[in-house]
Amino acid sequence: MRAESQPLVSVTDVEKHFGDFHALKNINLTIREREVVVVIGPSGSGKSTLCRTINRLETITSGEITIDGKELPAEGAALAQLRSDVGMVFQAFNLFAHKTILENVTLGPIKVRGLSKAEADTQAMALLERVGVAPQADKYPAQLSGGQQQRVAIARALAMKPKVMLFDEPTSALDPEMINEVLDVMVGLAEEGMTMVVVTHEMGFARKAAHRVVFMADGEIVEVAEPEEFFNNPQTPRAQDFLSKLL
Ligand code: ADP
Ligand code: MG
């Protein structure tokens, strides 16, 4: 499957500095269509920064990132359009607090994709159905559980018809009993062939859904391997040390 699929996200020789701090060092990573890549590594290793550079929430110091062959423009309408190709779900459920669940999902498609309200409503209800929160459509985010809010965040991202979905620790802020309801939605997406980059500490998800695991430490990609290989036979001392602390 992956042998024939096209590179969708290409990260080439990327460096990122925050002032004197070297946050991303010589990052090279290609994500192919339909591929699920799990990014793991210690806190502060640059996982979130990498995600944020992929949709230009952060600028890069040097190097190049392309989505479907196109470099992200620096700003303006072209950036909004290309950014909508990259769906993002964060650790914090950053829904619009003063909009209903339905409005949270329809806003982007109406504003950026140019859908009519009726079209956007129909699409949004189907997505809310799919993530299991359709009955909550007219409620406000604060009336939903964390797991429900995170599933709405996934529906909202999907409503933009992204080419790739980035998840940055989507279950880290959830109570344990809600983690699986979010992971199940993500596993479903992976099975349907969505291209995904997932930063997570959920090793069960990585084993079940990932095609490749990317291990980062100190701003570098230290190891890239298939999940079974990575978990059973990590090659570097840093990966061995990280995995031993998870158990
Ligand atoms: P991770 O997601 O792997 O925990 P991050 O990508 O959030 O790591 O952060 C990597 C490093 O970059 C950390 O040391 C963090 O303090 C630093 N960093 C992240 N964002 C900024 C910023 N806006 N300004 C300065 N340093 C930052
Ligand atoms: Mg992070």
From TrEMBL:
One of its GO terms (molecular function) is ATP binding. SMART domains: AAA (SM00382). It is found in: Cell membrane. Residues 9-243 form the ABC transporter domain. It is a peripheral membrane protein. It holds the Pfam family ABC_tran. Keywords: Amino-acid transport, ATP-binding, Cell membrane, Hydrolase, Membrane, Nucleotide-binding, Transport. Its main location: membrane. Belongs to the ABC transporter superfamily. This is ABC-type polar-amino-acid transporter. It comes from Brevibacterium marinum.
